[in-house]
Write a sequence for this structure.
């Protein structure tokens, strides 16, 4: 269920679409006509983990709200007062019962449909594959090799694909839900480094 901000968090007045001057010029946003509060609607930072065990397999889990047979990465919202690194370690522990022993940044991407920014890490964990203890919001899990894993062409699916690529295998993509285009977005895959990314051109002159 999607929620919309309708009232000012400062004085509870109903928000209105109001044009105001900002650094970039005149911009229309939800603003409070009483106290001047602006609802910026900034993207929410979401953390994701490609959880790899000592045997080289990746841990995928099924959310209780997903249809049977659909598995994804371990994800969660970053909390106030924590770094992304601390946040993903906390999320992995809360969702799987496993402690992270090493981690590295894998990739970052936007998830516009949910107004989120995804920060994905490759993490290595302590424990055996059977030591997983899922949180109540996850129903089941599976461990898969890079060759067995099928990536989804959205959101965290590109993080899994990058992990598979770095393992030396060609990622395979498939639809995450019925009716979804199974092909990856060419603007998001493959993940390009700065020197390889044609979108990095001479910056325009700002006046």
């Amino acid at each position: 269920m999607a929620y919309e901000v309708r009232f000012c968090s400062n004085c509870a007045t109903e928000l209105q679409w109001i044009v105001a001057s900002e650094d970039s010029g005149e911009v229309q946003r939800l603003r409070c006509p009483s106290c001047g509060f602006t609802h910026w609607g900034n993207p929410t930072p979401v953390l994701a983990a490609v959880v790899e065990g000592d045997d080289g397999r990746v841990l995928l889990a099924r959310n209780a709200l997903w249809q049977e047979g659909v598995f994804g990465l371990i994800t969660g919202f970053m909390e106030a007062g924590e770094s992304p690194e601390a946040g993903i370690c906390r999320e992995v522990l809360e969702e799987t019962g496993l402690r992270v022993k090493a981690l590295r940044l894998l990739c970052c991407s936007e998830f516009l449909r949910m107004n989120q920014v995804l920060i994905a890490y490759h993490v290595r964990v302590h424990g055996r594959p059977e030591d997983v203890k899922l949180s109540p919001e996850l129903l089941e899990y599976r461990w898969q090799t890079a060759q067995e894993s099928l990536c989804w062409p959205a959101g965290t699916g590109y993080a899994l694909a990058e992990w598979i690529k770095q393992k030396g295998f060609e990622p395979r993509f498939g639809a995450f839900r019925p009716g979804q285009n199974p092909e990856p977005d060419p603007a998001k895959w493959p993940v390009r480094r700065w020197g390889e990314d044609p979108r990095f051109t001479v910056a325009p002159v700002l006046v």
